[in-house]
Specification:
Mean pLDDT: 96
Strand content: over 45%
Order of helices and strands: EEEEEEEEEHEE
Number of strands: 11
């Protein structure tokens, strides 16, 4: 059974940090690009960051560049999203995804492409940033 399980969300004050985890199982981890997405109440889902299955390159949405860092521990089949200097506008449910097409994932994170048809999704973890 394929599973993506996010954890690490919570309530934090503006300027604070959180480290999200996405634990994957049930598929060949190395063959999939892993992405982080978020959806705030009343807003469309948006790409945050991803790590390519081609060469491990990392990509970020402009809104989080310089503040968020994505990393992967392939031995643990886990991807992390270190979030620093959090802002109230970062408040959202954060989801991780896995897709066999890394170009698709990269495009959704870094461009205006709005095709969220990824192979697998987690159920999300809530991040709330208070002002």
């Amino acid at each position: 059974e394929v599973q993506l399980v996010e954890s690490g969300g919570g309530l934090v004050q503006a300027g604070g940090s959180l480290n999200l985890s996405c634990a994957a199982s049930g598929f060949t981890f190395d063959d999939y690009a892993i992405g982080w997405f978020r959806q705030a109440p009343g807003k469309e889902r948006e790409g945050v960051s991803c790590i390519s299955s081609i060469d491990g390159s990392t990509y970020y949405a402009d809104s989080v560049k310089g503040r968020f860092t994505i990393s992967s521990d392939n031995a643990k089949n886990t991807v992390y999203l270190q979030m620093n200097s959090l802002k109230p506008e970062d408040t959202a449910v954060y989801y991780c995804s896995a897709d066999s097409d890394p170009i698709h994932t990269i495009a959704v994170v870094t461009t205006s492409l709005r095709n969220y048809d990824m192979d697998y999704w987690g159920k999300g973890t809530l991040v709330t940033v208070s002002s």
